[in-house]
């Protein structure tokens, strides 16, 4: 491992220059400031250089429950964050028509299939019985859909209910959840918080990057502020990758041979009424050459069609988006077309520069992994922060860890595609073995005879727990032949009691929880009011 000559850049508390704002830049700034302090408190001087001329794509962002850990650790008030970001709750993702296209009944009606990926883990009772094997051994024609059988979150979400009550306080609740929010507004929340901790903000345009003799960054040039120097540079400049890509030239590894999508066409759609039901999950619908996301914010819907240009045209993609929106809304839309290259940099920390967000890599929007990868990177930067010594002392460990995380996410995303039985070329090609990462192929071979286990994964490199793989597999009707295990599974009667208990919890939750729309409105008006004890009818539900 070669280290940067730090004689010119080492300081008592190393200065940090973050190039680019947005969610990546301001989350990095806020998290570093909260955990390391700023020059106001004897910590590093942290500066964000943000261009006033570059817009942030604010079509609606989905997140994963880990975002709550970040926001809680920062000390940001949940209700305030939700109000200012136009946020709503997200309990998972509903996948429509991913296994098969809609089937037409003799009367002409289209029948759509769907499955649900909830954020709640399968129910684990005080009896400590794993229900998954017992579900596998039930008659396929008689058993409930997997997510409905092992957790009551699907019932709650399908009923349009919220994952928590107003009295349950900040970032707490009986069901696991994340958020949908306006990414532009969310960046504003983080910026306000970071500035309050002493982060410096410069509005200006990058005009060049000067390199030292060893290839490290010596300075960045700006039109408004001249040359800016720091000990550590964080590239949050998005797809442009001004520092890590254009200046330092860290190689980019494309993965189009695994994940085919490379385009998106997006639109913002107003709600038809001010009190319309808000779905508390992302709706992901499969189409001929990709899929649409449909995210309900408090004031509008963010909708986009992600597709592969090898299998369709931009014109046809826009027509698919318009057709999808037209099923539920007559609003006039102004679609926006976006191109991207799926892939990542195996060296995201080089010399005295580390990339966070789109500059480090982008896979595709499925499963909201963009924000998860930002969270993972900023956690590691805090852990590895070079207060003294070479700026890249921990670069090898950082790069290996982030590469493994990207690879596991790529496999998880591919899992959604490679199980499909849709007949279109895009979907058929996604099932070809040569497009499936070898590690995922090996796991699929194992899972034909047993369900996914926590021991299949290295937790430090995973963004998704083993049960998320179960939700996708069995939502897509993957067949695990567990018949040989039947004689060893002697607690069928108890399992049936637990399945019934889950159903009863769902019925009770439907009485105790209010609608998602009503909770969002109440949070915006009043905030959360913590109460120590849960309401009487919710007691006894072990999560």
From TrEMBL:
<dbReference type="InterPro" id="IPR036188">
    <property type="entry name" value="FAD/NAD-bd_sf"/>
</dbReference>
<dbReference type="InterPro" id="IPR050816">
    <property type="entry name" value="Flavin-dep_Halogenase_NPB"/>
</dbReference>
<dbReference type="InterPro" id="IPR033856">
    <property type="entry name" value="Trp_halogen"/>
</dbReference>
<feature type="binding site">
    <location>
        <position position="90"/>
    </location>
    <ligand>
        <name>7-chloro-L-tryptophan</name>
    </ligand>
</feature>
<dbReference type="GO" id="GO:0004497">
    <property type="term" value="F:monooxygenase activity"/>
</dbReference>
<keyword id="KW-0274">FAD</keyword>
<feature type="binding site">
    <location>
        <position position="367"/>
    </location>
    <ligand>
        <name>L-tryptophan</name>
    </ligand>
</feature>
<feature type="active site">
    <location>
        <position position="90"/>
    </location>
</feature>
<feature type="binding site">
    <location>
        <begin position="21"/>
        <end position="24"/>
    </location>
    <ligand>
        <name>FAD</name>
    </ligand>
</feature>
<dbReference type="GO" id="GO:0000166">
    <property type="term" value="F:nucleotide binding"/>
</dbReference>
<dbReference type="Pfam" id="PF04820">
    <property type="entry name" value="Trp_halogenase"/>
</dbReference>
<dbReference type="InterPro" id="IPR006905">
    <property type="entry name" value="Flavin_halogenase"/>
</dbReference>
<feature type="binding site">
    <location>
        <position position="358"/>
    </location>
    <ligand>
        <name>FAD</name>
    </ligand>
</feature>
<keyword id="KW-0285">Flavoprotein</keyword>
<protein>
    <submittedName>
        <fullName>Glycine/D-amino acid oxidase</fullName>
    </submittedName>
</protein>
<keyword id="KW-0547">Nucleotide-binding</keyword>
């Amino acid at each position: 491992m070669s280290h940067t000559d730090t004689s010119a850049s080492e300081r008592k508390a190393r200065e940090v220059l973050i190039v680019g704002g947005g969610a990546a830049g301001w989350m990095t700034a806020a998290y570093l400031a909260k955990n390391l302090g700023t020059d106001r408190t004897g910590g590093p001087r942290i500066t964000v250089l943000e261009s006033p001329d570059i817009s942030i794509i604010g079509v609606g962002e989905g997140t994963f429950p880990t975002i709550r850990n970040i926001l809680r650790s920062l000390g940001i008030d949940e209700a305030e964050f939700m109000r200012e970001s136009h946020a709503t709750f997200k309990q998972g993702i509903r996948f429509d028509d991913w296994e098969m296209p809609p089937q037409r009944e003799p009367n002409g009606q289209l029948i759509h299939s769907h499955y649900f990926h909830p954020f709640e883990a399968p129910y684990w009772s005080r009896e400590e019985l794993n229900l998954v094997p017992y579900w596998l051994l039930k008659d396929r024609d008689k058993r409930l859909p997997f997510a409905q059988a092992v957790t009551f979150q699907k019932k709650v979400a399908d009923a349009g209910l919220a994952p928590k009550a107003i009295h349950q306080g900040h970032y707490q609740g009986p069901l696991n959840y994340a958020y949908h929010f306006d990414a532009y507004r969310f960046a504003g929340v983080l910026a306000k918080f970071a500035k309050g901790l002493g982060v410096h903000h410069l509005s200006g345009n990058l005009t060049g990057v000067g390199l030292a003799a060893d290839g490290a960054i010596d300075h960045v040039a700006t039109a408004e502020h001249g040359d800016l120097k720091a000990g550590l540079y964080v590239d949050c400049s998005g797809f442009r990758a001004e520092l890590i890509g254009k200046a330092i030239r860290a190689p980019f590894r494309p993965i189009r041979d695994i994940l085919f999508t490379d385009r998106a066409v997006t639109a913002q759609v107003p709600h038809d009424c001010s009190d319309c039901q808000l779905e508390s999950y992302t709706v992901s619908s499969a189409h001929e050459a990709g899929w649409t996301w449909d995210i309900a914010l408090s004031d509008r819907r963010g909708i986009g069609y992600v597709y592969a240009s090898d299998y369709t045209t931009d014109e046809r993609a826009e027509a698919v988006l318009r057709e999808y929106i037209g099923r539920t809304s007559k609003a006039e839309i102004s679609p926006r077309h976006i191109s991207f290259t799926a892939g990542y940099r195996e060296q995201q920390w080089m010399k005295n520069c580390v990339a966070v967000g789109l500059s480090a890599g982008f896979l595709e929007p499925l499963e909201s992994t963009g924000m998860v990868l930002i969270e993972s990177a900023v956690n590691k930067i805090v852990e590895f922060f070079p207060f003294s010594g070479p700026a890249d002392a921990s670069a090898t460990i950082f790069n290996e860890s982030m590469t493994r995380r990207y690879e596991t996410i790529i496999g998880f995303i591919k899992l959604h595609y490679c199980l499909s039985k849709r007949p279109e070329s895009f979907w058929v090609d996604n099932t070809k073995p040569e497009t499936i990462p070898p590690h995922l192929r090996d796991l699929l071979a194992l899972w034909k005879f047993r369900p996914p286990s926590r021991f299949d994964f290295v937790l430090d490199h995973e963004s998704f727990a083993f049960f998320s793989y179960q939700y996708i597999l069995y939502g897509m009707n993957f067949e695990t032949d567990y018949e040989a295990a039947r004689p060893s599974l002697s607690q069928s009667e108890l399992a049936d009691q637990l399945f019934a208990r889950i159903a009863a919890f769902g019925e009770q939750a439907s009485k105790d929880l209010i609608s998602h729309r009503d909770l969002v409105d109440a949070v915006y008006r009043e905030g959360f009011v913590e109460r120590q004890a849960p309401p009487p009818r919710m007691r006894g539900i072990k999560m």
